[in-house]
Write a structure and sequence with these properties.
The complex is a heterotetramer of chains A (328), B (125), C (224) and D (249).
Chain A: H1 6-12, E1 17-22, H2 30-37, E2 46-49, H3 61-70, E3 75-80, H4 86-98, E4 103-107, H5 128-141, E5 157-162, H6 169-182, E6 186-191, H7 195-207, H8 210-213, E7 215-220, H9 226-235, H10 243-250, H11 257-274, E8 278-283, H12 292-298
Chain C: E1 2-6, H1 9-16, E2 21-27, H2 30-33, H3 39-56, E3 61-67, H4 77-82, E4 88-91, H5 95-104, E5 110-112, E6 114-124, E7 127-132, H6 148-151, H7 179-189, H8 219-222
Chain D: H1 2-10, H2 12-35, E1 37-38, H3 74-86, H4 88-94, H5 96-99, H6 101-120, H7 122-132, H8 141-164, H9 166-170, H10 174-195, H11 200-217, H12 225-235, E2 247-248
Antiparallel strand pairs in D: 1-2
Classes of the chains: A alpha/beta (328), B mainly alpha (125), C alpha/beta (224), D mainly alpha (249).
Amino acid sequence: MKSGGNLEAVLKAGHFAITGELGPPRGTNVEVVMKKAQPLKGMVDAVNITDNQTAVVRMSSWATSLLVMKEGLEPNYQMVCRDRNRLAMQADILGACAHKIPNMLCLSGDHQKFGDHPKSRGVFDIDSIQLIAMVKKMRDEGKFLGGEDIDVPPKIFIGAAANPFGEPLEWRVHRLAKKVAAGADFIQTQCIYNMKIFKQWIDQANDMGLTEKVYVLAGVTPFKSLGMARYMQKNVPGMDVPNHMIKRLKGVLKKQVASEGIKIACEQIEEFKEMQGVAGIHLMAIEWEHKVPQIVEQAKMLPRPQVPQEPQEPQEPQEPQEPQEAGE
Amino acid sequence: MSTPVNRDQIKRMLKARKSRMKRYLSHCMHCGVCAESCFLYMKNDKDPQYLPSYKVLNSLGKLYKKGGRVDRAFLLKIKPIVWKNCVLCRRCYCPVGVDVPAMIAFARSICRSQGVYPEETQSWL
Amino acid sequence: MIVGERKPLEEIAKMMQAYRKVLNIGCGGCTSMCLAGGQKEVSQLNRDLENHFQDQGGDIRIHELTIERQCNAEFFADLDEIIANYDAVLSMACGAGVQFVADRYPHKPVFPSLNTTFVGIDRDVGWYEENCRTCGDCVLGDTAGICPVTRCAKSLFNGPCGGTRADGTCEVDPDTPCAWYEIHKRLKGQDRLDLIMKVRPAREWVNQTRRSVIQEPYKERYTK
Amino acid sequence: MMAQFVLFIKGPMVWIAFGVFFGGLVVQAWRFISVTRKKDPDYLPGAPKKKKNKKKKTKKTLGKAVAKPKRKGIMERLQPLIRFADKSYDNLENSMFFTHPVVAVVSVIFHVFLFVTPIFLLAHNELFRKAFGFSLPGLSDRTTDMLTIIFLMCGAFFLFRRIFTKRVRAITTLYDYLVLLVTLTPFITGFLAFRQWGDYQTVMIVHIVSGELMLIFIPFSKLGHMIYFFLYRLLIGSEYSFGQGKRAW
């Protein structure tokens, strides 16, 4: 085991994993975190804690991760390259691991111009792939990026993001390969709507043997409304929303759009389950955390598997275990 | 320096740009209006040597007039004109649109092709 | 002026080894002025490369051409005529010039032979110093004409850090004067210390994405 | 013999002169176009043309600077000119009118009168009416006489400038005096002919011949700036162009 975390155990055991997402509050309001975490409990194997998502200042990802862990959820600590240099990154990684945060997602980060401090100085000391390599070096070689030894290296399950839809399309799978080569253990993809292109991408990844080396979690975001679908189609770079999905949402009564969105997501999940090379899904129910139980239920992904943990260190506190009884 | 210049090469170069450069030369009214637009002219006490039209007429103009039949001494003579007296800032104003910097740049190319160019930093400044 | 330095010969040779006919383009602008990429340096580099490949064994022909400036299409005519004869292009311009050459000839591999180092001044012949990082929001008016972004190792905006040495040099490099020590000294001499007594708030960094400038009288011509 | 020559210069030669004049202007305009080129929207004139997919047309090289190759209406095209006039006072401070007010004013008068005087001269218009059956409105003899005198004074000014101004003398050649002579002779002789000074017949012959020579001379000499000036100002992209500057050298 690389981290001793639940997500790793679930994936390693060959179960179809599910991860959720939780955005930290814009303030010190712990209640909000608890409220968002509550419905995710027992529904997901780990939950991504975003790091100043869309370059808007929020509670730091590691701090929110600790709060979520107290609630009994396993966090997936996100780190972007925009806000800190390699010193701060390594320091935060050590801190996170000291608190037994088992997973980490390495990202470049949205540009600061999109956020609430557009004229801040972007750090981008290293990029996401260099970050992955750095974490791997810390974990596997026990060395800092600068080459010095680490006194008790961190244990972490390294995640990375992938977008199969950005141009140049043909190069996207090679970028995945680079992330795998750098040391990623699992991949969470951008929200997938265009199943055809995703299929091509995952097939390429299968052919290149990438999916044997890395767990790919397919990104799923249910449409909350027609407006959201249209916005994503037009305004979100690297997002590919096919017209037939928009048509399908248009075809139902306004009241039923949300449930139709969930239905679409569940159909997608069914497809992903059958798809070779897909190890699970990453469910990004943006500001819709309370709907997660319904979606997971409807997608027939309950109950979540209980994988016995390999014993780590004796003083290890109770890892966020699923409250559910019995395996599959 | 006494190495002979490659006149054929100079002639070839002159010929290649002839249509444009000849037009410029033939349309320069020798009116002197370009003077004030040249900061070097202004800063050097309005010395006519720094007049943009003076610079082209006495470098590229002479090259064309002589049909490329020039020697190294000639190129060395125009060297300070095209390098020291002009910095190619491209701000010169010509009422009839003669592109002075293009001509100076071309004269520089010709000099360069014969190994005539400033080598010491001092000569730039 | 933009100041550059030649890359190590091995690095340049490594970039060139896949090519047979190479054109090394010098720039008559800034890199000539800083003695890094003018006609003389082009000849020198070509000689060095030829010697290198002679020793290493390699069939390469490197020609040279210096144009007045590689950052302005106006001066590319000579190059346009002969570019087709070459497999690859080596440019001795600054990074801007190299990119302009590469943009102009998208089908030719273009390589830099300089490291573009900084925007600076001539300290003496062959000796240059960085004076500007083109941050795009100049504060020199408040800092006695001494740039804290460039000349303070930490780019501090509100005075020196605690590390200034007794002789007024920077903690990072004992040969570099502390920018804020100098700013203080100069402003004190001018009796303008009030300029740096107020807290300067966090600045707006504008050099985060590629910038382009259209001078005011040309706004109408290029934008709408 | 002499009579035949006079007949020739009064008849066919006029037509030849005008033919050469207008034909030459067209040729010069064409040559101007041929030595200039359209500015590439990407400002990469030497780059091989890519097949452009209209939909995916990206504005890369200059960022926003290359956006909008929008077609403009005539009023929009004239905008720069109008604005130029609006702001002309600011512009003037840096222009010839402030740096060299005398040269600027004399140049304007010289060039305007160079056209106005012969075109609106009554005697010329009489000839014009004989040839085409209609004529332009003519100025009175007194007026044209005044214009001629002023014009000649301007010419004298240029001559003195050539001789006595250091920087102009530095670039003056014999050719410049010749050009000035060619320009001034028809006016001098016309002036003499009007006063009936000297031998009228000779003066008239010189007047006609020099006028015809000038017409022939214009397109193929420095005087070609007559058309060049406008082509340059309206077409070439430069700091001083009046138009959009869609062409480059």
